[in-house]
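STRUCTURE:
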């Protein structure tokens, strides 16, 4: 009779306190928050400080070409950010649904 010892990778217990989908949720939430901040920064800048418009004027000062409108650049940045945000939402929803399905039942003796 031959007995084989299980390898360390197959002998691991799956009783960790946090499964991979549950650990992924906070990381994905941080990424989503940072994406939303990146979306808001150009809009807040245009409404308050105007550093993008000042930068465009300084960059195009000696060229003889009119600088592009800061509102157009802001609209482009916000549109690009929204386009980047779209793939995040289905992934976040899928991970949350998977985490809820794999939660152990509570109150069962």
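SEQUENCE:
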């Amino acid at each position: 009779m031959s007995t084989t010892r299980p390898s360390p990778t197959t002998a691991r217990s799956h009783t960790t306190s946090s499964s991979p989908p549950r650990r992924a949720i906070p990381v994905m939430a941080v990424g989503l928050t940072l994406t939303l901040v990146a979306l808001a920064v150009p809009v807040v800048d245009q409404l308050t400080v105007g550093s993008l418009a000042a930068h465009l004027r300084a960059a195009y000062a000696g060229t003889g070409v009119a600088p592009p409108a800061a509102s157009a650049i802001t609209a482009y940045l916000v549109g690009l950010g929204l386009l980047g945000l779209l793939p995040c939402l289905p992934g976040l929803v899928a991970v949350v649904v998977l985490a809820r399905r794999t939660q152990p039942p509570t109150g069962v003796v």
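REMARK: The chain has a mean pLDDT of 80.
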